[in-house]
Automatic annotation (TrEMBL):
GO terms for molecular function: tRNA binding. This is Elongator complex protein 1. GO terms for biological process: tRNA wobble base 5-methoxycarbonylmethyl-2-thiouridinylation. It comes from the Eukaryota. It comes from Rousettus aegyptiacus (Egyptian fruit bat). The keyword RNA-binding does not apply. The keyword Signal applies. Residues 28-83 form the ELP1 alpha-solenoid domain. GO terms for cellular component: cytosol; elongator holoenzyme complex. Residues 1-22 form the signal peptide.
Length: 491
């Protein structure tokens, strides 16, 4: 319907243009264009019809519509007279801008000559027409570069650093591209941009050191080492960064590449032994934390079951009327209890699902006796398991170099400690993430022997202990047993 209302005036105006130019032979009983226009004005808003006629760039048609619409000549004659004095492309640009047809406007303005480009660029920036504008100029023109620079700056303001850098790089604004790529951490592109700035050897080395520092802050030690070795010609510092990032084999490669075997004794072996010691301490901490949380979780679950059973034992039949009063009071008390804790729907309904989940997680407290302590313990246990699982590749890498440098006892010690930790967690998963507790927490107890109090007690426990957003906590973490992390040479 809306599409038809939008097309109707345009179709009618096309008919008027045809009638006015004599392209269509009139039928014997055909009405005149003026009569048809008078009738059309009864159906269509006069201002809309005037704008549509103006959009045809046909001034005879515009005057006909304006005169028949009984508009005040002072409203349109000065504007039309000004338009008639303009060059054709600038005239159409002015009309399109007036009608807010900005894409057409810049298309006409781009044909008006270079002296009008500043006006065109301002409109491009104001209406965010960068992609459309770039199609209007050849890539090797100054106008194309100016539009690209403006586009890149717009993307930078929107914190879209990598797209901004690509736009800068394509138009040859390499200095701006360098800043953009540094901002987004695209170090390879940053070095490409730096190379096109024709920096001196010392300048490039200084830039490489600065870039490597930024990469270390992002814990990208391998990338930082590559930059230092290849652009700052500092392989010694590169080796130290690789050792800091536990990239043992890459550090060895550089040592043998530059024939600096002395670094093996002075730096590599001590770093490996220190890393083994740190891994052992970390695994001890993980095991202790896991066991403590598991023990406490079992206690909390037992206390909750006892409390629920005690509540059900108090449910003595007192007649039909008493049950109704009891049910009502339970609903009220459940509402009161849910209001005591901060999971108000009104506070979180406006947030995204991700933010709501974060907000709910903040309410979990490991403090003993807190309402959601069991969920906090589940979350903490999940994090411990996932953190340990992610160590498999790191452990495998250090086991290889421990064996390589004949630190067999240290390697076996670490391998056994990691295996014991994984086995402890694997054995505990069914006990921690039990199907029984998932079902008990997911739905109230129903059945022919249930009373109003027992149902409401179960429902209240669900509301106060397991918000819907925390359902994922009842999904056990996965330990991938197919991952080959052990080194059989140490068996």
């Amino acid at each position: 319907m809306l599409l038809g209302m939008w097309l109707f005036p345009k179709l009618v105006l096309l008919c008027f243009v045809s009638l006015g130019t004599g392209n269509v032979p009139p039928a014997p009983d055909a009405v005149s264009a003026e009569e048809a226009l008078k009738y059309l004005l009864l159906l269509v808003d006069v201002n809309d019809l005037y704008d549509h006629s103006l959009g045809t760039y046909d001034f005879d048609l515009v005057l006909m519509v304006a005169e028949k619409s009984q508009k005040d000549p002072k409203e349109y004659l000065p504007f039309l007279n000004t338009l008639k004095k303009m060059e054709t492309n600038y005239q159409r640009f002015t009309i399109d801008k007036y009608l807010k047809r900005y894409e057409k406007a810049i298309r006409h303005l781009s044909k008006c000559g270079p002296e009008y480009f500043p006006e065109c660029l301002n409109l491009i920036k104001d209406k965010n027409l960068y992609n459309e504008a770039l199609k209007l100029y050849p890539p090797n023109s100054q106008q194309y570069k100016d539009i690209s620079v403006a586009y890149g700056e717009h993307l930078m303001q929107e914190r879209l650093y990598e797209p901004g850098g690509l736009v800068f790089a394509r138009c040859g604004a390499h200095e701006k591209a360098l800043d953009a790529f540094l901002a987004c951490g695209s170090w390879q592109q940053a070095l490409c941009a730096a190379a096109q700035l024709h920096l001196s050897r010392d300048q490039l080395a200084g830039f490489g050191r600065s870039l490597a520092g930024k990469l270390v802050e992002q814990r990208k030690h391998r990338d930082a080492a590559t930059v230092l070795e290849q652009y700052a010609q500092d392989y010694e510092e590169a080796v130290l960064l690789l050792l800091e990032g536990a990239a043992w084999e890459e550090a060895l490669r550089l040592v043998y590449k530059y024939n600096r075997l002395d670094i093996i004794e002075t730096n590599i072996k001590p770093s490996i032994l220190e890393a083994q010691k740190n891994y052992m301490a970390f695994l001890d901490s993980q095991t202790a934390t896991f066991s403590r949380h598991k023990k406490r979780l079992l206690v909390v679950r037992e206390l909750k079951e006892q409390a629920q059973q005690a509540h059900l034992d108090d449910d003595v039949p007192r007649g039909r009327e008493s049950d109704l009063f009891s049910e009502t009071s339970s609903v009220v008390s459940g509402s009161d209890m849910s209001g005591k804790y901060p999971h108000s729907n009104s506070r979180i309904s406006a947030r995204s699902s991700k933010n709501r989940r974060k907000a709910e997680r903040k309410k979990h407290s490991l403090k003993e006796g807190s309402p959601l302590e069991d969920l906090a313990l589940l979350e903490a246990l999940n994090e411990v398991v996932q953190g340990t699982e992610k160590l498999k590749d790191e452990i495998h890498q250090i086991l290889k170099v421990l064996f390589l440098f004949e630190f067999d006892e240290k390697g076996r010690e670490l391998q056994k400690a990691f295996e014991d930790t994984l086995q402890l967690m694997e054995r505990s998963l069914p006990e921690i993430w039990t199907l029984t507790h998932q079902q008990n927490s997911a739905a109230p107890v129903l059945g022919p022997n249930s009373t109003a109090n027992s149902i409401m007690a179960s429902y209240q426990q669900q509301k106060t202990s397991v918000p819907v957003l925390d359902a994922e906590l009842f999904i056990p973490p996965k330990i991938n047993q197919k991952t080959q992390w052990k080194l059989n040479l140490l068996e």
